[in-house]
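Q: I have 696 residues here and want to know how they pack in 3D. Can you give me a structure?
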Amino acid sequence: MSSATNAPAGTPKHTNRLAQEKSPYLLQHRHNPVDWFPWGDVAFEKARKENKPILLSIGYSTCHWCHVMERESFEDAATAKVLNEHFVSIKVDREERPDVDKIYMGFVQMTTGSGGWPMNVFLTPDLKPFYGGTYWPPEPKHGRPAFTQVLERVAELWKERRADILDSANDVTARLQAMASHDAANAFPTGERELHGAGQSFLHEYDPQHGGFGGAPKFPRPSQPLFLLRYARRFGDAEAIKAVLHTCDAMAAGGMNDQLGGGFARYSVDERWLVPHFEKMLYDQAQLVQLYLDAHVVSGEERYGAVARDVIGYVLRDMTHPDGGFYSAEDADSEGKEGKFYCWTHDELSRLLTVEEFNVVTRHFGVTKAGNFVDHSDPDPLPHQNVLSVVDPRVEPADRPLLEAAKAKMLVERAKRVRPHLDDKVLASWNGMMLGAIARAAAVLKDDEFREAAERNLRFLKAQLWDEGSKTLYHRWREGERDQVQLLDAYANLLAGVVELYEATVDPRHLEFAVELAEATIRRFYDPENGGFWQTTADTPHLLLRNKEDYDGAEPSGNSVAALALLKLAAICERKDWREAAEKTLRLFAQRLHQVPQAVPHLLLALDFALQEPKRVVLAGDFTCGSTASLLRAAHGVFEPHRVVLGNHGPVEPFARSLPVNEEFTLAYCCTGTECQPATRERSRLVEFLRKPARP
């Protein structure tokens, strides 16, 4: 299957099977001398036939250390020779196959105490893991063996102690299967005890000096501050609000936030949010938009809305397919150097800007001749690099035009640089998250362009990833092709996004699609006997086990997202079966909610919603008219987590459908349980209803 082709300079270039794939990550490895296989029957059959162990290597296209290991090991002919002789080597894009990644990451974390990417795991031909780790260097250092030493030792043990390895793999697999099980007999969480305990735990981790939670490296993990704002409202804790707003300010001022082009990097390597790991992920942008919208609504401060606008502007400018789909990520590296696209030297800026502009910029962003960033993973790092962060936020009125002019010049100059690699695959899961964030921003920030972008995105997803006949949602689309993978993450996140879009527009077509997605999600993934949602469908091939994911890490789990979305949709449509499915899911994970709330902050949002009858804002009228838009903006401008917004058309609850329609203007009916206030056209009365504390 492997072949040689000619590079432009005339030198032979190896090409392997990955050249036939669509994943940008797999395509990055298509010219490795390693005889890579994609995940599938061909590789597994070869391993069985030749009785060889499998090296399963998992990463993603914008992963910095994945690039490092490829450069050091997978492009090395001597390393490739060992792999090709003794192993069947398989590459997997974790973003395309989070189900595969989850299984083997669980093994690596269980056996080593940590995880990450690149992840390299050795499997038996029947896919059972027996040894694994993350990055291995080309030479022994920092207590880590060289990658070739690992390969040679595993090959030796496979030859000499295969029976022991197989016994160990069977034992480990049994342990993984036990870890994947949950006690369906849990009592439903009592509620306030779990919520209060979680809030206290999160605040205990708060960094009062720099903002954020925990130490370096610092991840935004938006579900945690999102929950704290709900905790603060429920328990009247003003300190929790201060912690969240401080964190939002610190992140926005830091180098993790692209001060010129908008959008946030993956995380900060230090505790001050200064030096980022420069890759930008779509799922981070989506969650951070939601966080900054909450901060804007809670505080009334425009600066948080401005950050949300900047993030959305970045996504629409740099991360959007011409037809409306959202791309997945941008790399940390350009031209082989991490951060090269984003960083500046003192001398570079002195040449680009006027003296007056330069003085304002260096003071505001803390630019120095020495710089503040060195890539220690690079044997030949670029010198004197400055990550831009707001060191001095005070800008005199006379200096404001100078700062804006300088930033405009810098953005134009930066655009001439080689951009980081763009992972242009479109994932239904991450698109659902971004769709919901932009839809909500349209209402909160009163921006019709955002609403149009959200609806355009949904049209793209329905055209490319949704099969109307079979009610099937596929996970990945790229260059005109979609995969065949069925994942809870795709269904749950798109469902949540469409519910947000419906609440921002009360367009009954969006509600009808949300109902279709909810029914498909229940049908394909829900466990009616024990509760919870499987990560994959029962007929997904080549999986060692089926998981019910319950960890809200960089992305919230499918179970958490599905539970909250179904609770909202159940209130909108008065569907007791959906509410019961969500409550049964919460019950399944009750021990996690009680014992380890840090692991499930997004599930806490669902629990918080479940414990209180939501207020209902029913808008009776033409969903396209201006008065509807005005009332929608009023409803979304109040921080009331226990609220749903619906119209009176489509599959809404019976009371809403019974309301008369006035052709001239829209009326708002404000309801809790079976009680409704008199209909109103006044935004102030709607706001008053939402701000008023619910009765216990």
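Q: Anything worth noting?
A: The first helix runs from residue 24 to 28. Confidence is low (pLDDT under 50) at residues 1-11.
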